[in-house]
Each structure stands twice: as C-alpha cells, then as structure tokens.
Amino acid sequence: MHTSDGSLNAGKYISVFKGMKRHDLLSQSKKQIWKDWITRDDEVISYKTTLKNEKNPRETLILIVFFEKNDGPIKFWDFGPENNINEIQSKPEGKYTKIMRNWFFENFQITLPQSGSWGEVDAFYDPKKKKKKIICN
C-alpha cells in the first residue's frame, strides 16, 4: 500500500485506489479474476476477487471493491484474510481490530490507521457479520 495516494497493490495483477474507474479495474489483468459481487437496480456495483497472500502462501485474501453507480469511481474497498474469526468484539477498538492492524503491518509494513486527501484506511470490525477487515473509504 502507498500512503501517498492510498493505493493498494495486492498481488501481481491487482492495484486499487479510491477514485479508480470500473473499466480500469476490470482491464488491469489479462486473467478474469473479478467476479460480480453485488448488483443494485440491474447494475453491478461491487466486484470480488480472491488471491494468495505472497507472504503466507497458505493464506487466501479477499478484496471487494464497491463503485458509485453509472460507471462512477471506486467508492470504497475492503480487504482481508478469507479465514476470519467469527467472534464477538464488544467495542469498535477491541481485540480483533488490533489483530487486523497487526496483520496489515506484518503484510504491508504500514501502521494503521492511515489517512490523506485520498481518504482513510483502517481495520474495521463488523458486529453484524462478526467479521474483521481492512477498509478504505
């Protein structure tokens, strides 16, 4: 990840940044790696891909990218390991948020949270789904 512009390079074929257009995301790789993820009003607004973690080949990573409607730019993306712990965290700044920040530092050598004119990146815990992830908005 580059903190100067908020871009994330995940694997050899994937680079995302807030403001990126849909056609740029879908055309950056010769492989058909992106799957339609969420559709709203007959328009795909989110795409998902999985890839191997280069630092830990036994770990699978998930990257989901959400777009504005009508071929607008990336609204936000979320990223993290596929094997999330389905545990309850009782507050926003808890054990699993810290685990994700440590995981991100181990893999990208960047301390979270980070912010700039491009937005913010930080660990996030979703209490409804009991999942932890890295999110850029």
Could you give the topology of this structure?
Blueprint lengths: L7 E3 L3 E3 L5 H6 L7 E6 L2 E10 L7 E8 L6 E8 L13 H14 L5 E3 L2 E8 L4 E6 L1
Antiparallel strand pairs: 1-2, 3-4, 4-5, 5-6, 6-9, 7-8, 8-9
User: Gap between N and C termini, in Å?
Assistant: 14 Å
Mean pLDDT level:
83
Walk across the major sheet and give the strand order.
3-4-5-6-9-8-7
The rounded Rg comes to 15 Å
Q: Outline, from the CA principal axes?
A: globular
- Which structural class is indicated by helix and strand composition? mainly beta
Give the quaternary arrangement of the chains: single chain
> Roughly what fraction of the amino acids lie in strands?
35-45%
Low-confidence stretches: none
Largest sheet at a glance?
A: 7 strands, antiparallel
The total of helices stands at 2
Secondary-structure element pattern, one letter each? EEHEEEEHEEE
Number of separate strands:
9
Helix content: 10-25%
